[in-house]
Structure formats: structure tokens, C-alpha cells
Amino acid sequence: MISVIYELFLTNSGTAKVEKEQLGFHDCKSVCFSTKRWSAVLVLFLTFLGTGCGKFLDVVPNDTPTLEHAFSNRSVTEKFLRTCYSWLPDPTDPLYYPAYFTSRDEFDYKGESRAGNSLAGQISRGLQNTNTPYQDYWSGYADSRNSAVKSMYKALRDCNIFLENANKPRDITEEERTRWISEVKFLKAYYHFFLLELYGPIVLAKENIPVSATPEETWVYREPVDECVDYIAGLIDEAMPGLPPVLPDPTTEQGRISQVIALGVKAKLLATAASPLFNGNPDYAGWTDKRGKQLIPATYDPAKWQRAATAIKEAIDAAENNGFRLYEFNKFSGGAKTFAMNDSMVQLMTIRKSITESLERNPGVIWATQEQFADGKGNSAGLGLNSLGNMLKLLYPQMYSQDQSYQAQYYAASWHMAELFYSNNGVPIEDDKFFDYANRYKPRRAIASDHHTTYIPTGEITASMHFFREPRFYADLGFDRGYFENETTTDNGGATFAVYLRQRSGETGLNGYVPKKIIAFESSSSKGVTGNPYAPYPYQFPLLRLADLYLLYSEALNEVKGAPDAEVYQWIDKVRANAGLNGVVQSWQAAAYNPAAPTNKNEMRKIIQRERLIELAFEGQRFWDIRRWKTALQYWSLPPTLWTTTGATPDAYYVPFVYGAPRTVSFRDYLYPISQVDIRANTNLVQTYGW
């Protein structure tokens, strides 16, 4: 429908007609045509933009027949502001957002056909292509079959329209006007950043191309990555003075942008620019455009890490000065409830509820989605029917034998995630001299004197690798014979839990680990209910946490300094302490085969990277980190694996079973291709290198 509207508009506005296949090109160049000749087409365009995101972001104008009217007063201008917000990609949509099922190293859809045939599933099967690229956030043309994938250039067009016209309404205070303009400048920067992460060098939509432009004037170029980064950072800097330090009224304004959010995003932008993908990447040494410009620098520049470190520290200082701190669960002030949990369970709640706790009680979340996930059917006030609400339903384990008609847990945490987490000594299990790594798959019985009674029922048998692990392992993952802590599985305030997972052949659950961390403790599964016993707990999914910035700063400092020092350790150790672990140096000296690893810059880099993969697991961050580090070959090529699906006894069950072919990974998979439609329509565009 959008394509039809564009075709209608381009014809009626007096410009040259274009072939239908060229519409993607016009969209991707953000030719918003800032002109007064919008007439009645604007009402159709605004009608089909989509909806916003609950509360503040829930209305898209549907009654604005002319551009003048769209900015004639405060009310309609605010609606257009919400339209600019409505283009934010849905970070909780597992089938269409890049960060979930495009690889199978963190989440796994276990052969479920709908996920396997989704845009993400096709990419995970190595089927990405240039004819109709999957997850086409560039022009949206290739993915017009699914509205969950939105063209970021259409978003940028709307941002530019707003910025061109925000000075028109007179019934608005200058303070409010300045804030709105600043918000849209940030959104403009964010949409460019999202494109940069996916595609590398991009077209910069600095302003809308006028409707009177000749075809040649619309043939724009992808700009070098460094120029893109500078432009995006400059936009954020321009936005900063007009933004509030934090939201004045979080209850009604959640989802809007503050200075702390803007500084955090700038920090992540500059860390991305300093990372191996974009900072001296020899894989792209031959990538030039038709002007001869090198699009990704082949020479490493250490100054980029210093620039990133400065920005990250500025973001941390702003966050801490405005009351943000790492979340800690208090069993005596859990909202309206108190709990009778032991210290081990309190630590697990600190980890789990750092994601799912309500924002008014969670000072560790800097930016979160606006919508709350309302029910297991995926209905929400926000970003669509394929939101996290539906994902959580399909991740939730089947917990009672009489609920066999409820086929839950279609999706799972990847089997490989179980090996990622540290031992209880705070070091990798393969590097822990006290951990029996060679026999980690062998069955082991939980005994009464074992400290694992908090996590595994006494007398039950599970894999040896499920014992002697760090608290995040038990907070993040549900596993066979491990407790699944929900309010409905305890009747004494969390002192004990009754339900543990049974996932062997012939039992209740379906084979696979459960990403327990993102399933709120307050969720429930009612015994005796068939069909759909799952009742989710609504929460707002974090987009940026303070822990992310702490680890990012440790990473940047490690790159800046000649060797790791106390300042590098300080920030990673804050996160580890919050997760119940000793500091890096102490842990490695006490338990690792290589106790000096944290003193070596290259080894410390690996430690920080693993810490990020653990701390931010299942939060939609791993995909972006692996790409900027250029470590996809290590992770994305891992074969899809489960415990043996036919095993009914411990000895038969705890055998790794590779049930599919691993993905073939090459350097070209780090960046998305753009559609050949766009390449044909604009001869100045070059395809993503390798595609």
C-alpha cells in the first residue's frame, strides 16, 4: 500500500513517473519531497504509517489532509512527533528483528517451521540474498510482505519533515518546541546508527530531496563509515542541550529520549566505530565507491578507542549523577510483597529482575521499550503482535504433565549457551582447574549436603555441567532437573520451590534450555489448566542498561592502555560483584590454568568479551557485539544441538545430538546486502562488499 501511495504521489506531483520497481530506490533515498503539494495524498500516507507505542507514543495522525495542517497547531504537531517515534524497530520481535534467530548460537527455534521460514530463520539457514534481502531495513521494498520490517529511510524522511516544519505552530512554548526538535534530532541519529550497524557505509539523509529534483540529483552515494559516524555523533550533540537530563515524568513519558539515553547511544556508536569491523578491517580493503572513496578504512586508528572511552565515561557519569545504579533485589521491598528467600535466591533475583523489574524500582535500566508485554498471545499496547509477549509464551517451559495439550517451549536458549557461563569460581569452565570439564556431560546426582540444593532437587540426576556454576547460569537458564522459580511454584515466599523441569523423552517438557532470565518471576503456570496455563507478567524490555556501559568502558580502556590496569578491572568487576563473583584478577589467580591472563591485553580482551556475552545474554545485544568484534565464525557456525531427543534415562539423555547442519559463515555476513532494485535504480550505489 505504501508503494501505491508513493506511485500516486510521484505522478500527481508533476515529477517524472518511475517504474514500480524503482519505488524502493526513492524510499531508500529519503526523498520525502518537502513541498506544499502533498494535498490529499498525505492523509493516505499518514494513515498507513502504522501505530505508535502505548501511552505517549500511541497515536499516529490520521486526519491531516495537508502539510500546513499537519503543523498548524500543537496537537497535530505532537501527533507527527509520535509518528517519528513510531518507526523505532521492535527489539522484541524474534522473527524479524536481527538480534535473535538470524543466528542460532544464543536462541534456537529447534526446527519450528514458522521461525525457520521467517526472515530471521532464512538468514540463519544461509539464505540471505541480494534479489529480495531478508530484513530489508534499507528501503523496506524487499520485505514489504511484512510490516514488522520498516525502512529506516522512510523514518528519516518523516524526521526531516518534522524538523523542517516544527517552527510553524504558534500555540506551543519555545521550551517544548526545543525539546521536540531535540528528540527528533536524536531519532534521526538513531535511525542512521541502526542502518550503520546493519549495512556499514550508508546514504546520509541530511535533508529531504525536493520534489523538483532531477533523477540525477537523487543518485546519491553511500558515504564512508567514518563520515557517517561523525555525522551521527554530531546530530546527538546538537540534540543534547534541548533534552531533559532524565524524563520529568517517567510514568507518562516512558519511551521518550533524555540526555542520559542520548549519551548512552553515542557511547555505543563510537565503540562500534572503534571496533574491528569498522576500524582497520582488511576484509573491506577493496571496497570503494564510484568516486574512488574507500568506504571502510583498512588502517587501524587507536584514537577511535580513546574517543569512544571519553564518550562512554561521559555517559556513565551522567547516568550515575542522575541516580542510575546497578539493580539489587531487596526481598523486603519487592513492591507490595516480601519474600523468605535465602542469599543464593536473592542473588538469582538480582540477576533476573535486573531485566524484568518494573522501571520505578529498577535504577539499572537507562532506556527501555515503552510498551508492556500484556499477554501470552502477544497482544500489547505497543510494537505489534509479534512482540516479546508472544516470544515468551513460546519460550515458557511446559511444567505439569497434565498440560500436554499446551505445546509450549517451541523456542529455546541455544544448547551452546550452557557452556558459555563461568564456573562458580568465576572463570570459564574449560579454564577452571577445579572443574571436571572432560566429564561435564556425565550424569551426577544432587545430594543433600550439596550447596546446589537451591538450584537442583536433592536426589535428582542431571548433567555434571549443571553443577558448580556461577549464579548467572542458574538465573539465566532453565535446564532438565533444575528448579524453575516462579511465584506459582512456591507457597512460602520463595523459601523453597516445588517445580523443576523434566525434559527427557516421555516427560512433560520439550528438549532445550530455557532463557529463564527474560521470563519474569511473577509469571505463572497454573497446575491443572490445559490449553494455555501460562499467565505472563508485563514488563518493559531494556534497550540499554548501566551494566552495558560499565563493560563497554572496561573494553575501551583495555584497548587504549598498553596493558590492563586497575582502572580496566574496576568497571568489569562492578558487574561481576553485582552477579555474585569475585574480581577478574582474584578469580583467575585462584582457579584458572592461566592465572596471568588478566594482565595480558589480548587475553583481557577475550575476558571482557565473554563477560559481555554472559551479562547481556538474551537481551538482544550479542548479535551486535559479535559483528563488531568480527567473531562470527567462532559462534555463528556452531551446529544446532540438543540433548538426545529419545533419551529417557540420564545416561541416554545427556548425549549432545547435532540435529542440523551448521551455518557457513564468511566475511560478507557481517553486513547486510541492499536490494538489487535499489542498485539498478541508482547507478551511484554500490552493493555491500562480498555480495
Characterization of the model:
The chain is built from 25 helices and 12 strands. It is mainly alpha-helical and 691 residues long. The chain folds into 2 domains: 2-98 and 135-323, Serine Threonine Protein Phosphatase 5, Tetratricopeptide repeat; 343-542, no CATH class. A two-stranded antiparallel sheet has the order 1-3. A two-stranded antiparallel sheet has the order 2-10. Strand 8 (524-525) and strand 9 (534-535) form a beta hairpin. Mean pLDDT is 86; it is low at 1-55 and 373-386. It comes from Niabella pedocola. It is found in: Cell outer membrane.
Text of the CATH class of the largest domain? Mainly Alpha
For the largest sheet, list the strands in their spatial order: 1-3
Helicity, as a percent range: 25-40%
Average pLDDT level:
86
**CATH fold group of the largest domain:** Serine Threonine Protein Phosphatase 5, Tetratricopeptide repeat
The description of the largest β-sheet is: 2 strands, antiparallel
The total beta strand count reads 12
Q: Total helix count?
A: 25
* CATH architecture heading of the largest domain: Alpha Horseshoe
Structural class: mainly alpha
List unreliable stretches of 5+ residues: 1-55, 373-386
